[in-house]
Amino acid sequence: MTRILTSLLTASAALALAQDLPAPTAPAPTKPLISKLDDARYLLGGITINQQTREIRFPSKVNMAEGLLEYLLCQQQGKVHEALLVTDISPTNLALAFTLLRYPTSNELFALVDESGHPTGQFPAVPAATKAGARITIDVEWDEHGTRRRQPVNQWLQHAVKNAAMAAGPWLYTGADFADGKFIPEITGDIAAIMLVPTAMINFPGSDNDDNVWFAYPQRVPPEGTPVTLIITPFSNTKAPAKP
């Protein structure tokens, strides 16, 4: 009898405790990674992609309006003391956008290494079609005194010796590796580099990409903190046909 009474008291106490606990709540619905905007455009983690034009757009802001630069773009946890622009988007999502829009990667800029990890002075053989497909144009779009402006981001970079803007030309989608199962740009914050950086997923393939000679163009870059939209499109060096 005592054992039964004890069991009943224990059950009653458990029931009372359960009644005092808050009712379990259903988990909040997760926001889909990709949502459709219209027939051509999709939103991917804050990045707008256009499957017809292969255009990629995402928000950024001016981080440095003057000073020496090594990076075009990084995340806030990246090397912001030498980056022209910063963004909050995920590098992983940006890599997915490149993949969905069929941009190949090219590792042509980085020398092969031997078994001990030392550069060999030789470079990987990359097919011409891959080199061409990996080249991109990067534009910036921003509001200036109520007017929406757009120009190549090269115009915002000034050569220290030549005292001129970076020549028109492409950037290169080099991609990036993984370390311990993590996408390296997510760890480093490196997205687009002016100097050659293997951990950045975009690199500048033009001249003087191995020396500290690039500065923010002070007469052209908007004030620090200015919101901008970065626009990536396929690069084309096709010239218009000559007039007859």
Fill in the keyword field for this structure.
244 residues, alpha+beta, two-stranded antiparallel sheet, 16 strands, globular
In brief:
The longest helix has 19 residues.
The shape, in one word, is globular
| Mean of pLDDT | 86
- Could you list the spans in which at least 5 consecutive residues all have pLDDT below 50? 1-24, 238-244
Largest sheet: 8 strands, mixed, barrel
The end-to-end distance, rounded to whole angstroms, is 111 Å
Report the radius of gyration as a whole number of Å.
26 Å
Backbone structural class:
alpha+beta
Order of helices and strands: HEEEEEEHHEEEEEEHEEEE
Helix run count:
4
Total strand count, please? 16
Within the largest sheet, what's the order of strands?
Answer: 4-6-5-13-14-10-7-16
How many domains?
Answer: 1
Strand content: 25-35%
